[in-house]
Specification:
With 356 residues, chain A is an alpha+beta fold. Chain A is built from 7 helices and 12 strands. In chain A, 43% of the residues are buried. In chain B, 23% of the residues lie in helices and 26% in strands. The chains are: A alpha+beta (356), B alpha+beta (287), C alpha+beta (253).
């Protein structure tokens, strides 16, 4: 047989794209396909190859910066964040509405720890800030004021710092016992009746906690919180005392004291991926969902519902420090309780990475 | 300053810690001063691809010279582009470069705020000039490229708390680091350049001692020397033997006329050395 | 001892907005206005759905980071109940103005607070839902929210619905939960130090407040049960407010 011309009988070349191109062009169907494979022996996987319950390994390095009193670098996959803690001094004369320790405005039944927590909150002694505009991702370019995401993250870290009571405020106080001034010619003052002057707080340490995102690939809160905690554990403040002659606080070199950090709260986040958006679901149809642990940037863009749980398993009973669930109605009571169990697993991972 | 978009500290101003030892005696140099040969630059560590979501990125770290308290320089650079310019901008037949340098708040001895101050803008302008000579701009009309550098750790000695005007000399070192890291990130992004540009710093310093003569050293650490008389930062293209940016600051003694040229030559030599490291790192990245 | 007042609401208080509501409960008074669906800005428009934009203005001062967080929480919640797919490339704009907040002599009042204010969230939620109903924006369901705090009183832990600022300060944990009218959990925000069992108990309490089934008008069953004094019946309140409004609008008939 003579060879036919190429145009007849040959099928037209099929249009195929590489996988990453499909992932970019139609992300929702692509993720749906990988999460619901045809054959039952194939495990559901995400675009990055992880299973839905698998989170990225976390890597924590501390003490990398020498200009900061404490620092840490946390890497979860491609998300990299650097945290630096700097201490500065705040004399009580600069605090408006300062309440001295023995003031009657404080409740008498509060113990010192509670008072210290209030001081932290009232005098703004912990100042966390998150900087995303470092070019860590194409949507975070500098030159614009902080985006809503950056502000939300800063608020969440601030809320959690105070709510979980991680820093013991008593370590931030600088005490001074004023000397007894003997007035001359005062015949009534007898040696036995001399009262000891009570020590008073003259200044506080203010901790500026600055977080810088070097690279952003989803789930910023978990990485940011781990970095804050690691940096606070690493912080060593110089020993300070009040110098009455110069009327200022001076520090001594050497003998830096670490902060008293209580507990190890660890954050664990997930996003919920829905097969169909709510409005498209017809009556009587089921709507499958997958809970994706530690979502990356592309997955976060496809999911509306997110949950973050902060747990602390340092004691025998799991203490939950914070639950934040918003953006959807899939996660009910049972799923949240199950998720707290998953968070406990993440706690163990992070504890190992911190090296305690 | 109450920036309502950030969490502000206490309304009263806070003071950085003041150490007792500063009151009286001046800071004695820890040891011998500079321990490198006058023509040797510090070892550097350069890595590309640290930010996968950006078009190109690089991370640079200068060696910590082993003395306690002298920090190494740490820089991170990301390049986004070439990308289309916003609609409102006028037509441009070549690529529009915009460089943005920012010190992290914990980078230097004095805590810096989040808003850029004039010195950082100045560094950005110098960087733009340095890179403009290297990029083949005509290949990308109507496009822009953003180069963003975060200085994670400045080059200051933590022990000395007296400024001594050290900040300006540290900025020179920072600029040379910025040029090198930006060049690496541009290569990682695949933007066409005629050559790799690297930065080098040379300074005229005077050591402690009655009869010490000023000498020229390369890649200076200001705390190593009693006084820095002048310094210059050079951005140099070795293959073409061209200088794209030259920043000189200081006061040279009028006695020696050729001192300035010598200083610039040394700066170019430092730049050549840095370039070698840069090319080696890029070669490793592609292999 | 805090005086629990019943919630009060008024609809249509702002004549020029598409919809508006004023709600007050537990010391908080919030006014909301809703405009929409209206044309969206180029940068905000979404090709397949409407964009829900929430703006929260505090009682004093300009909003700071905490208001941005409240806005993002409300936005993600309200996007779930508004039928956004019906209005592509549109904008539903909700502005909430806090008019009154309970005074607290113990709390050191700073103008700009950074940590999240849990006690105000239910009021913001309720007001925005009422305003959306007043504007007639098509919704999938309505939603109600409540705040519960776990306080240690006399050694025992008790849960307090609609805590006062003093309660929030001394509480071991504070929680805000929101439910839709289909009894689904829409929002769960908690902070403090608690266990899973405590959260469970809080969930039950909040569900009881928000999702009590509407009482049937069958004589004997209208007897007030002592057990139900654990807070107002919000769903019933929402329904009766709307019924009153519709009745007054149609009174000419």
């Amino acid at each position: 047989m003579a060879t036919a011309t190429s145009s007849t009988g040959a099928p037209p070349p099929s249009l195929t794209f590489a996988r990453p191109v499909f992932a970019k062009l139609s992300p929702h169907p692509y993720l749906l396909r990988t999460l619901s494979p045809d054959s039952p022996d194939q495990q559901p996987t995400r675009n990055n190859g992880r299973s839905p319950q698998q989170s990225r390994p976390i890597q924590i390095n501390t003490s990398s910066l020498s200009q900061a009193h404490g620092s840490s670098l946390v890497r979860t996959g491609d998300t990299t964040v650097i945290c630096g803690v700097r201490g500065e001094l705040l004399p009580v004369t600069s605090i408006p509405q300062f309440r001295p320790h023995n003031g009657t405005l404080y409740d008498q039944d509060e113990d010192d720890e509670q008072r210290a927590r209030k001081e932290l909150r009232d005098y703004d002694l912990l100042v966390p800030n998150i900087e995303l505009a470092t070019g860590c991702a194409p949507q975070f370019l500098p030159g614009v004021p902080p985006t809503t995401l950056a502000q939300t993250l800063s608020t969440r870290v601030y809320s959690l710092l105070h709510g979980a009571g991680v820093v013991d405020g008593r370590g931030l106080r600088i005490w001074y016992t004023p000397e007894n001034k003997k007035e001359e010619g005062d015949m009534d003052v007898k040696e036995e009746q001399e009262e000891e002057q009570k020590p008073e707080v003259v200044a506080y340490w203010v901790l500026y906690i600055d977080l810088l995102f070097v690279s952003f690939d989803g789930n910023p809160f978990d990485a940011a919180w781990a970095a804050v905690l690691a940096a606070l554990r690493d912080t060593k403040l110089p020993v300070a005392r009040w110098d009455p002659d110069r009327e200022m606080v001076v520090c001594r070199k050497g003998g830096d004291k670490g902060l008293d950090i209580r507990g190890l709260p660890v954050a664990c986040s997930a996003a919920v991926f829905l097969e169909k958006e709510h409005a498209e679901v017809g009556k009587g149809e089921g709507n499958r969902h997958w809970v994706l642990l530690d979502p990356d940037r592309s997955e976060e863009g496809l999911c509306k519902e997110v949950i973050t749980v902060v747990v602390d398993c340092s004691e025998e009973e799991t203490r939950v420090r914070s639950i934040e669930k918003q953006g959807g109605t899939v996660l009910g009571r049972e799923l949240i309780r199950g998720f707290i169990g998953v968070a406990e697993g993440r706690w163990r991972e992070v504890k190992e990475a911190t090296g305690i | 300053m109450a920036d309502r978009r950030r969490i502000n500290g206490p309304p009263g101003s806070t003071i950085p810690p003041v150490f007792e030892d500063d009151a009286g005696q001046p800071e004695i140099m820890n040891g011998k001063g500079r321990d490198r040969a006058p023509n040797t630059i510090r070892k550097m560590f350069l890595k590309t691809g640290v930010t996968p979501s950006a078009s190109g990125s690089a991370y640079l770290e200068f060696e910590d010279s082993g003395k306690s308290g002298v920090s190494g320089l740490k820089l991170s650079c990301t390049v986004h582009g070439p990308r289309s310019l916003p609609r409102s901008s006028p037509f441009s037949p070549h690529i529009v470069l915009s460089a943005h340098i920012k010190y992290a708040p914990f980078a230097t001895k004095q805590r810096r705020g989040y808003l850029r101050d004039p010195s950082e803008r100045d560094l950005g302008t110098h960087l733009e000039t340095a890179l403009r000579g290297a990029i083949i701009a005509d290949r990308w009309p109507k496009s822009g490229v953003d180069i963003i550098i975060s200085i994670i750790e400045g080059d200051q000695d933590r022990e000395t708390s007296k400024s001594q005007g050290d900040e300006t000399w540290d900025m020179m070192n920072a600029l040379s680091g910025c040029i090198t890291v930006a060049s690496a990130a541009l290569a990682d992004a695949g933007i066409d350049c005629v050559d790799t540009v690297a930065g080098g710093v040379a300074a005229l310093v005077q050591d402690a001692g009655e009869d010490s003569t000023p000498r020229i050293v390369v890649d200076p650490i200001p705390s190593d020397h009693e006084k820095v008389l002048g310094a210059c930062c050079i951005a140099y293209l070795p293959t073409r033997d061209e200088v794209t940016n030259l920043w000189f600051k200081g006061d040279l003694p009028a006695s020696d006329a050729g001192l300035y040229t010598q200083l610039v030559e040394n700066g170019m030599q430092a730049s050549r050395n840095a370039n070698r490291v840069l090319v080696e790192c890029l070669g490793e990245a592609t292999s | 001892m805090t005086v629990t007042t019943a919630p009060e609401a008024a609809l249509g208080v702002l004549p020029r907005a598409d919809g508006s509501a004023k709600y007050s409960h537990a010391g908080y008074t919030v006014t909301a206005s809703v405009n929409g669906p209206i044309e969206a800005q180029r940068r905000d428009e979404h090709p397949y759905e409407a964009h829900v934009d929430v703006i929260v203005r505090p009682a004093a001062g300009v909003g700071g980071t905490r208001e941005r967080h409240l806005e993002s929480i409300l936005q993600s919640s309200l996007t779930q109940i508004v039928l956004v797919k019906n209005f592509p490339r549109s904008l539903v704009q909700i502005v909430l103005q806090v008019e009154d907040a309970p005074e607290n002599d113990y709390v050191n009042t700073k103008l700009v607070q950074a940590s999240l204010n849990f006690a105000i969230m239910p009021a913001l939620f309720q007001t925005s839902v009422l305003a959306l109903l007043s504007a007639g924006v098509p919704m999938r369901a309505t939603a109600t929210a409540t705040a519960v705090a776990i306080v240690s009183r006399d050694g025992t832990k008790t849960s307090v619905v609609d805590p006062s600022p003093r309660d929030v300060e001394i509480a071991r944990s504070v929680h805000v939960l929101a439910f839709t009218s289909h009894d689904e959990l829409l929002l769960a925000e908690s902070e403090g130090d608690f266990t899973v069992q405590e959260w469970n108990h809080v969930y039950e309490t909040a569900k009881d407040v928000c999702c009590r089934p509407v009482p049937t008008k069958e004589g004997m069953e209208m007897i007030l049960d002592d057990e139900h004094t654990n807070g107002p019946d919000l769903r019933h309140f929402l329904r009766s407010t709307m019924e009153n409004k519709v009745a007054s609008d149609l009174h000419w008939k």
